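Need a sequence for this fold. Nothing fancy.
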């Protein structure tokens, strides 16, 4: 098998997150219009917003994949043809599709746009992957439950022109390939139509029919158990194995996550992919791995890639937050950098700075001023303008983080 450098595919829930993905090294982004995508919580992209997004990405050499991976009902097929055709006219590079009817329609009304089969379809073997190719798909996004050993078999037994995509980082769904009905049962919000309320992250207790109202804990603690609460996926230190298995696109989960999250994870995986490609056989530098600890996350796992499963964290649902984003740089004015506050920070604190295409570094906030250039000891107000007198070279759009003290 020829060695192929994999594509880095990042999420874009709105324009800010899209720009973060592009600036921090994504080869492609996936996003949604206002309909037919599996994430309704993010702002997503209306007609002209989508057109502008495609233009921006293509100007920066980045591809755009539009999610059409909900499970559509009959009435959805009235609006769908026009949407698909409009996407083709805008220059969208691919559709991400889970439904055979949508696949056929996309092939008919938007033949110039590649068709990628969504992880929602649940492709776990070479026979299903090959059928997708024969039906007109350029790529299949494999089910998250497929181990690397079986991905190799899929690659070896499918047409060489078929691309394989797999998730490399982010939240894991406790249900097979994301096909879950718990949200629909408990809240009336259909997870398979982009409206998941994430009840798998809730705390649960047990009751018994003969003792209504009496709750029993599911672990030997006062708290209940989070027994659906899957750990997060992180494969940044196993990219060479994913490349060797024949995966051609590595996908970061997170269209509902912040722009900072998208920037940080994209930057880390950009560095990791480049390092694995340029230094085969060498271990990943610890500094690259450390970047994935600078975003909020659940306990990490390797998913299903090496057998077994991601595991669940039963005693809590909250995220680990080792670092806190405190400001975004808006550019330089004379001797000062102009910062926009995101969380409270103090004069004298050490900040860790992330900017595109460069290794992160630390610096001290020795002299900070408010918008009237009056010296201040802290920046406590949301979105306040702060000036930082420094010779450090920091570009607009850079993120400033502070390492949190362990409790």
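Here you go.
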């Amino acid at each position: 098998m020829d060695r192929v450098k994999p594509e880095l595919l990042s999420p874009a829930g709105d324009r800010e997150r899209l720009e973060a993905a592009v600036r921090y090294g994504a080869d492609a982004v996936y996003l949604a219009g206002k309909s037919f995508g599996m994430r309704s919580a993010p702002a997503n992209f209306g007609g002209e917003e989508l057109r502008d997004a495609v233009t921006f990405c293509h100007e920066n050499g980045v591809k755009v994949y539009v999610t059409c991976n909900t499970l559509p009902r009959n009435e959805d097929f009235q609006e769908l043809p026009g949407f698909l055709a409009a996407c083709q006219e805008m220059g969208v590079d691919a559709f991400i599709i889970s439904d055979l009817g949508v696949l056929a329609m996309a092939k008919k009304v938007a033949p110039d746009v590649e068709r990628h089969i969504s992880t929602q379809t649940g492709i776990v073997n070479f026979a299903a992957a090959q059928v997708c190719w024969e039906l007109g798909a350029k790529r299949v996004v494999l089910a998250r439950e497929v181990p690397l050993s079986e991905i190799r078999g899929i690659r070896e037994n499918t047409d060489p022109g078929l691309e394989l995509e797999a998730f490399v980082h982010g939240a894991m769904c406790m249900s097979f390939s994301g096909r879950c009905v718990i949200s629909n049962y408990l809240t009336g919000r259909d997870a398979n139509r982009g409206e998941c309320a994430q009840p798998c992250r809730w705390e649960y207790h047990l009751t018994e029919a003969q003792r209504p109202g009496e709750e029993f804990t599911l672990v030997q603690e006062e708290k209940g158990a989070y027994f659906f609460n899957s750990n997060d996926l992180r494969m940044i230190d196993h990219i060479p194995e994913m490349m060797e298995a024949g995966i051609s696109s590595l996908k970061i989960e997170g269209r509902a996550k912040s722009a900072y999250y998208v920037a940080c994870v994209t930057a880390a995986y950009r560095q990791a992919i480049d390092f694995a490609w340029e230094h085969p056989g060498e271990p990943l530098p610890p500094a690259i791995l450390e970047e994935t600890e600078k975003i909020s996350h659940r306990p990490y796992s390797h998913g299903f890639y090496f057998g077994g499963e991601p595991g669940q964290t039963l005693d809590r649902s909250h995220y680990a937050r080792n670092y806190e984003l405190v400001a975004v740089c808006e550019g330089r004015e004379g001797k000062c950098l102009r910062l926009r506050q995101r969380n409270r920070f103090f004069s004298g604190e050490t900040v860790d700075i992330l900017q595109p295409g460069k290794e992160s570094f630390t610096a001290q906030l020795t002299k900070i001023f408010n918008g009237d250039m009056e010296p201040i000891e802290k920046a406590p107000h949301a979105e306040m303008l702060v000036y930082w007198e420094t010779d450090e070279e920091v570009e607009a759009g850079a993120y400033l983080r502070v390492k949190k003290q362990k409790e």
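For context: The two ends are 49 Å apart (CA to CA).
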